[in-house]
Specification:
By secondary structure, this protein is α+β, with helices and mostly antiparallel strands. It is built from 11 helices and 18 strands. The structure holds flavin mononucleotide (FMN) and iron/sulfur cluster (SF4) (2 copies). One iron/sulfur cluster (SF4) binds next to helix 5.
Length: about 425
């Protein structure tokens, strides 16, 4: 099933490459698959996007910059993480401060792009800014933990290759802000525009720094480097210079380095997350009271609007969805279960709700708990329900949905089309028996 492990990494100062190679090799050996390595560190390497095929497992490895995926690589990563359900493993490296939202962001981009993350990890590596923070990491213990993680991921891949999965990662999948670096006095450190400088007495004009800049920002004048374009402070030029000719002398930057060295000296541990598999099945009678929760979750709450109280579901127009559910002949309900917990439900009944279009046509309602959304579970539940209704010879099924609801896209994907609309809502219909 698994043909290749394709490992992609951004690694200006080498820490991320080390971890990427370790994980890639381990996974390849455990899965009996060929391993490929692809750097996207240099501008020329970001000119092409990954070419993925069925059977490719994607391992994506990035350092954490300011608590997220490095800003200047984000557009490339977003475009690159597109696949047709390929399994993936997300890995971030961080310099012993914190990985904040970076891992959730990477896993979120994988899910948005149609990948299926089986595992995710955050490994400590040397902080590019410092010789003490994260020094000697990953150490033997870190690598042993990474090996154990690789073994668990490989086992999941071999057992649940094409099954439905869910993974939860701490942090925001779609963060807006970056970590604000601070100085020793706790005031924000403004070194966004800081650039390195070169000591002409030490420089041998070898040109190495020019070749390693991920931004292609280093030029040359009489063989000496000139720092012309954008600098992301990655430290590749400084750390790769064989004579130590390059330095960052910006006082705001140096104060930030002093602050993190002082505050984050205590060793952080690597962290690992594994996907869990999700089962779809008919609801059991004893589980029917759970529909109250899913009805409440199904209420669309636009951004910035406070959630209504749970008692809203006692209103007559919402009670039609759940009252005495299971007792009418057209009632159908499927649930998604993960580790013994029901995490989502889709149900249909013939009822006089907002989506009602005819007395022989069931209306559909569905919801998933927030942390299980956007991972393909909703689509799978819907498809399974459409299959069931088709088998039971229903001609059509309808629903109503707020136009601003993210679920509209999912309904269209499985075959619902807009039949009618008000200012805020669509009535959508899916023809089940292949007729227009
Ligand atoms: C601009 C920049 C920002 C960073 N931000 C963080 C951070 O927010 N948290 C952290 O723990 N480490 C941070 N680091 C450290 C890197 O994540 C770490 O050094 C990583 O190993 C660098 O990867 P590389 O060795 O492959 O270049 C930052 C490093 C750089 C260069
Ligand atoms: S790597 Fe160092 S020695 Fe070589 S050109 Fe750059 S600054 Fe000079
Ligand atoms: S100039 Fe800036 S971006 Fe380029 S290698 Fe040096 S630190 Fe990195």
């Amino acid at each position: 099933m698994v043909k290749k492990v394709k490992t992609y990494y951004f690694s200006p100062t080498g820490g991320t490459l080390l971890v990427a190679q370790h994980l890639g090799e381990r996974l390849g050996a455990l899965l009996g698959a060929e391993v490929e390595y692809h750097s996207y560190t240099l501008p020329s390497e970001r000119e092409k996007l990954p070419q993925l095929e069925a059977g490719d497992v994607v391992v994506w490895v990035t350092p954490v910059y300011a608590g997220r995926i490095p800003n200047k690589t984000l557009d490339y990563v977003r475009r690159a993480l597109h696949a047709d359900g390929n399994p993936a493993v997300a890995l971030v490296t961080f310099g012993n401060r914190a990985y904040d939202n970076a891992l959730a962001e990477l896993v979120g981009l994988m899910e948005d792009g149609g990948m299926r993350p089986f595992g995710a990890a955050a490994m400590v590596t040397r902080h590019a800014f410092s010789d003490t923070l994260g020094a000697g990491r990953p150490n033997e213990e870190d690598l042993a933990a990474l090996d154990y993680f690789a073994a668990q991921v490989a086992e999941k891949l071999l057992t649940f290759y094409s099954q439905l999965l869910t993974i939860s990662i701490p942090g925001e999948a779609h963060p807006e802000k970056y970590y604000t670096p601070l100085k020793t006095n706790n005031a924000p450190a403004g070194f966004l525009k800081a650039k390195p400088s070169c000591n002409s007495e030490l420089c041998t004009r070898c040109g190495k720094c020019i070749d390693v800049c991920p931004m292609g920002s280093i030029g040359a004048k009489d063989g000496m480097p000139t720092f012309d374009g954008i600098c992301i402070k990655c430290q590749a030029c400084r750390r790769r210079c064989p004579t130590g000719a390059i330095a960052f002398t910006d006082p705001e930057y140096l104060s930030h380095v002093a602050m993190i060295e002082r505050t984050f000296a205590a060793l952080k541990r690597p962290e690992f997350f594994l996907a869990r598999n999700v089962q779809l099945r008919q609801i059991e009678m004893t589980e029917i009271p759970l529909l109250d929760n899913f009805l409440y979750e199904a209420i669309f709450i636009p951004e910035g609007v406070p959630a209504p109280p749970k008692s809203i579901i006692d209103s007559e127009e919402l009670q039609v969805y759940v009252r005495e559910f299971g007792q009418k002949k057209d009632d159908r309900c499927l649930v998604a279960e993960c580790d013994g917990k029901i995490v989502g439900a889709v149900w249909t009944r013939i009822m006089d709700d907002y989506g009602h279009i005819a007395d022989d046509t069931p209306s559909l309602a569905m919801s998933l708990y927030r942390e299980y959304r956007n991972q393909g579970i909703g689509t799978a539940l819907l498809e399974r329900m459409l299959e069931l209704l088709r088998k039971d010879n229903y001609e059509r099924v309808s629903l109503s949905v707020q136009k601003a609801n993210y679920a509209v896209r999912m309904y269209r994907k499985v075959g619902f089309v807009e039949e009618n609309e008000t200012e805020e809502e669509y009535i959508m219909v899916c023809n089940l028996q292949g007729k227009e």
